[in-house]
Every structure is written in C-alpha cells, then in structure tokens.
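S.,

Sequence below, as promised.
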Amino acid sequence: MLHALSHITVLDLSRVLAGPYATMTLGDYGAEVIKIEQPGRGDDSRHWGPPFTDGGQSAYFLCTNRNKRSLTLNLKTEAGHKIFRRLAAQADVVVENFKAGGMERLGLGYDSLRTENPGLIYCAITGYGQTGPDRALPGYDTVIQAQGGIMSITGSTSEGTDGEPIKVGVAIVDITAGLQAVVAILTALQHRDRTGEGQQIDIALYDTQLSWLANVASGYLLSGDPPRRYGNAHGTVVPYQTFATADGHLMLAVGNDAQFASLAEAVSEPAWADDELFATNPARVQFREQLIPALANHFRQRPTVEWIRRLRAAGVPCGPVNDIPTALETPQAEHRQMVQTVTDGNGDQIRLVGPVPKLDRTPPHISRPPPLLGEHTDELLQEKLALTELEIQTLHDNGVV
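The prediction came back faster than expected:
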C-alpha cells in the first residue's frame, strides 16, 4: 500500500487533544510520528479516566494517539536538550502546544531550530496565539467555547436554569484546531517542496472557534443583530430541528421549498405547500410559531422508524436521534470501517474510531496502536541517533529518558 506521507517525520511534543489529533491524522497518512513525552508521566491525557484498559491505558489517550511511537525525554536536562536538537535536525515537522514562548524559554523555539534545519515546519498550537493581549493565557477548550461565543447560541431556548449556556458535548474547538493545523502543515510542506523553505505556523484555539461560527457570525456582521439561541432549531431555515415522536425523536432538515412541499404531503397537509404563510422559507421563518406546533402534533402520532421510512420515501432529509452506541454500530458505520480493532503493547484489544477519508490510491490506515509510555525510547535512540546500549542505559540512569 502506498502511504502519501511516508517520507515525512513529525516530532510531536503536544499533549491532550488539539496537537495529538493533528499528528495522529498525519500518522494516518503514513507520516512517521515520534511522540516525545515527559519521563514517568507522559501526556496528561494518559491519566484522564476512567475508563482504562486492563493494562492502564486511558480511553482519552487512545482516541488521538494511534500511529505514533513514544519516546520519553526530559527537555530540561542538557542531554535531553541535545537529543531533541539532533532529532529536530532530521525532522520535517515539529508540533507543540506549550504556552506561548514556552519552547523559546527552553532554547528550542523555531528560530533556534531552523538554524540547523532551514526546511523545518514548526507548528505551535496555543489558546490565543503567539501574539495579542491574551497570548500568555492557557488555552482550555471549554473556556474558549464560552469566550468565543458558541455557548451563547447553544442550549435550550427556555429561561432560567434550563436555559443556561451549553458547551458542545466533545472538545470541538480542540478537534477543529487540530484539523486547521493539519491543513496548515500540508500547505507548508507544499511550499517547502517548491522553495526549500520551512516556516512557522501559529494556530490559536480562539481564532479557530471564531472561524466556525460561520453563518451565525456572518449574519451578525451583516445585520448587527446579536444571534440568539434556537435550541435544536435553525435561525434561518424552517423546519430544521428535532421533533418528538411517539417513541423518541427525529431530526428534520428541510432545506428548500420543494422539500417542504414533500413534507407537507407526507404529513397529510398538502395545502401547506401553497399557503402564503408556509410556501417559502422566508415565510416559514417569519411564521415558525404557527408551523412548528402543527408539525409537532403530527410527529407525536407515530413512532420514529415509521416517520423515517415515510419521510425518506418522500425525499425529505431526516434521521433518528441516536445515542453513541447506536451511532457506532449502524450498518453504515460498519460498512465504512469506522470502528477498528488493534492490539496494544500490553496485549489489550482496543476498539478505535477509524480514519474518515477514503482515498483510492493513498488511503489513511491504522498501522500502530496507541503507544505505551516510552515504549519505543530505546528503539528510536538506536535507530535515529545510533546510540549504543551503554549510552542509552546511561540516559535512563540519569533521568534523561
């Protein structure tokens, strides 16, 4: 199998989610990813549980660290400092998520490393970026969600405690920042292929959060009206929300007037398609308070599976509101190999969510399980730096690795 990035070596100094998600994605495409971790402790997420495997690996760590080898290295020691510089001189990409200026204080920032490796791509992921008045603040996903506006439009439309701002159920800012980092790294590699020049990449969680406010931010910038919460509904497309059925919930996504006419037929209200209150989307937005209760009354009369069958037959976009077990175990997920099993260094069988893109020439793949802490330290020191067994043992004895 041809692996698109098998010629690329990545030094991964990042921890927790955004950086590890980025480097895992590069590893899925064949990049050699060396995860450099603090001796004795490693990535913070190794300790975030339960649940843990029988061998002590946390589910949180497992979700973003496949296709990597783990090398423990104390960067605060002179010997560790030298080892990292030697590795960076051979690498194509460095990814780190220390606070702004953290690597510079260690003497291992981009300006220092590029003197020995001018083609190095150096990606720093922080909460607020390398510049600006908030650059020194730590970056935590939920704080960024709150500060970046997404929580102000997420949650129930109810007043009181039921209407409190709600974060997204996963650390979505971290994940999307990781994806932004991947795009930037691949772009920088393309530039290097043409010019031989490396460059520094500055990814901020806060910038990322603002960028995916998308149409909500655009609507505010155009109108000047502060966006409000719509719960599971949509501010500018109606009907586009969840409805309770006789035995659960379904999600309805009517994106145009033709689909609405089909919906009207499916709920035995064909006259709605010609009603001036409902015939066009701007009208449905204006008169949603009349339309939505009427639709809700219909949907409560039948079970979810029956509505899904009827609506899909009519060409109306919809789907059930599944829980996580159901979503991961659908025939579609199975067909797309979205859950895959690997065996880690302890012999534990681990199920992981698989790579997303399906490329016919260079598909992403899982070639390595998430590593145990320091699992590949000796192997990498021998392979990359040609250290002897005695030299490696001395590093262990001195707490360098």
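The CA atoms of residues 252 and 318 lie 5 Å apart.

Coffee later?
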